[in-house]
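Quick note —
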Amino acid sequence: MTSVQIPDDMAKDLMAFTRQQTADAAVLKLASEYLAEQRQKQRRALEFAGMFDADPSYDYKAPRRVP
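Predicted structure written out below.
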């Protein structure tokens, strides 16, 4: 397990927000929910893989060039 230094007022807010009894449990719950959400976003993005054809004439570097 890793130790994370969180200000007491933030820890209390996290505990209230997550309805957990300890700061450790609150941080663990928030981290696991965040990771689950990120994985779900990745899965949704992968559903579209290969569905779109790239325009071969599009120059993606054009907006980066300084006039």
